[in-house]
């Protein structure tokens, strides 16, 4: 499945599964993102 996201602001809620590797990826993505990131259920 291929999807592309056009340049611009992306908004939404991401609920990561309990997987440790997915949680670490979400944390890394939040460090690279501009602005405020909120991560829950990690």
TrEMBL record:
InterPro entries: Enolpyruvate_Tfrase_sf, RNA3'P_cycl/enolpyr_Trfase_a/b
Gene Ontology molecular functions: transferase activity, transferring alkyl or aryl (other than methyl) groups
Gene3D superfamilies per record: Enolpyruvate transferase domain (3.65.10.10)
Protein name in UniProt: 3-phosphoshikimate 1-carboxyvinyltransferase
Organism: human gut metagenome
